[in-house]
Write a structure and sequence with these properties.
alpha+beta; six-stranded mixed β-sheet; FAS1 domain; 12 helices
């Protein structure tokens, strides 16, 4: 299983991508939009966050980065509260940055993004202030604005890049990164030490999925499902809309190929082909994502059916104001329960009482080491609920500006 957070090579790739993406972001400017206060938080401390970071050798990597980008001095302000999810030197090492010399090879945009995403300006949030999310699918994570303002993805409307702390049981997280030491109270706010760098997202779900070679069939299925749809009724447009919170389960290429082969093989047998010829043709058809755009197979893969199946892969929450189930729930792997628990999906817009998708996480310490999803339906469709092995997440916590996606090894069916 590919685990994003503690993979040195993965972080190096993320840093390279951040360097390109954040060239357009205002992450190195002064911290804006912080709410002024009349008095500093009553934390019984005379030391500011900036002073603590400057003088504690456990934070020398962060201090070097924040000094280089001009962000450290602002953490000395007494007129503003801050919450900082602070990576220690060891957290930098775990994340693939072994030394300050290595850190200094990163460009200012990347460093500014790393530092800025750690900082929540305007208010002190203690661990006790964070809603307990993750134990119930109806409870989303807390969503807090960081000091990074973006306005390029894909529409030029500036908004704050947000971070998602949560508490589940006795564990405290920022996004999917465990907090190793919480509630270090200082003169102008609070520090929470984290186990690794909480890397900022730098692209929308659409861009992230488009760039993943393991998801070419999923992208083709999206195009087929969106036939005749407009605006945000198109799943593709929804994935590209930055101001959302989504959780997407994306079956990999092999998962789609298995389903398409079965559909094509059955169809070709019905057309009178021999078993050998049907096998050969089905193998050929299922070898390329262009199968979704083959008019000869439109009756086998109708847009409405493909849309229904894909809708089952978007987790949803009920919006009472709109009386609709909307993809407004961002769930990191550590937010999923350790017992099978049902999560609603976009299918609930057509079938309000549908039980959704069952998810189950396995933890080793504070980290999720196995995550599975079980759909209700079978393939081919049948009267009994699905009872086979669950789909396994083979890539966890792929974080984007507008949500998080998981690569899974099976296609899920709602009925």
């Amino acid at each position: 299983m590919k685990i994003i957070i503690l993979n040195r090579r993965g972080f190096q790739m993320i840093f390279a991508a951040i360097a390109a993406a954040f060239a357009f972001y205002s992450c190195n400017k002064p911290l804006l939009d912080a709410t002024p206060i009349e008095y500093s938080p009553v934390n019984n401390s005379e030391i500011s966050i900036g002073q603590k970071i400057s003088t504690d050798t456990n934070y020398s990597f962060f201090a070097a980065a924040a000094t280089k980008t001009g962000q450290l001095a602002q953490l000395n302000r007494d007129s503003t509260e801050f919450t900082v999810f602070l990576p220690t030197n060891n957290a930098f090492r775990i994340s693939g940055i072994p030394s300050i010399d290595a850190l200094n090879t990163l460009d200012l945009q990347t460093l500014g993004a790393i530092v800025g995403y750690c900082i929540v300006p305007g208010k002190q949030y203690l661990s006790s202030d964070i809603t307990k999310g993750g134990l119930s699918p109806s409870v989303p994570n807390e969503q807090l604005p960081t000091s990074i303002t973006i306005g390029q993805l894909p529409i030029p409307i500036p908004f704050k890049l947000t971070t998602f702390p949560s508490v589940a049981g006795n564990a405290f997280y920022d996004n999917n990164i465990p907090v190793t030491k919480a509630d270090i109270k200082l003169k102008n706010g609070v520090i929470h030490e984290v186990a690794a760098i909480v890397a900022p997202p730098f692209q929308t779900l659409k861009t992230a999925i488009d760039n993943n070679p393991d998801l070419s069939f999923f992208r083709a299925a999206l195009e087929r499902a969106d036939s005749g749809q407009t605006g945000l009724s198109r799943l593709d447009s929804l994935l590209n809309y930055p101001a959302t919170n989504m959780t997407v389960l994306a079956p990999d290429n092999e998962a789609f190929q298995t389903v398409i082969f079965g559909l094509a093989y059955s169809y070709l047998l019905q057309q009178g082909l021999s078993q050998m010829m049907a096998f050969q043709q089905a193998t050929l058809l299922s070898s390329s994502p262009t199968v979704f755009s083959n008019p000869a197979l439109y009756s086998v893969l109708p847009a409405s059916s493909v849309q229904g199946i894909l809708a089952y892969h978007f987790l949803a929450a009920y919006n009472a104001a709109d009386t609709a189930f909307e993809p407004g729930i961002r769930v990191f792997s550590n937010n999923f329960p350790t017992t099978p628990t049902s999560y609603l999906t976009l299918v609930n817009n057509g079938i309000p009482n549908h039980e959704g998708v069952k998810a189950q996480a396995t933890f080793t310490g504070p980290f999720v080491t196995n995550l599975t999803f079980t759909g209700k339906g079978t393939f081919p469709p049948g009267g009994a609920d699905y009872s086979g092995p669950p789909a396994k997440a083979i890539s966890l916590d792929n974080h984007a500006v507008n949500g998080v996606y998981y690569v899974i090894d099976k296609v899920l069916f709602p009925q």
